[in-house]
Design goal:
The protein is mainly alpha-helical and 120 residues long. It contains four helices and two strands. A hairpin with a 5-residue loop joins strand 1 and strand 2.
Amino acid sequence: MLERENELRLSESAQVQFAEAERSNRSDWIEVACEIQRQVLREFGVSERALHAYRCAANKHGISLYVKHNRARGGNLVVGSPVPDVSVVSVGADGVEDTKSIIQFQKQDRPLVIIAGSIS
């Protein structure tokens, strides 16, 4: 299954989809990767409900191939760097999005601590 996923991820059409997703404001590379993983599960006759287990097993046993072509990149921020002005989007229970500048969270004479993670 992982070999098939790798084959699909490296295909010309997937690479185009990854690049388009990164240039888009509507999607991200992880959405393309998720669809590839769903396709692999379908091809092998596995329920898409097993997607999380598929990902965990690959990572747990150190056999995950897709991290080899990860498009994520390390940044250049270090402790004490000025905060880059990026947008923070929150979605309320009613589905309404609220976008704020990260600078708006800064309090006068207090440090701004940012803890971030990834769902991928």
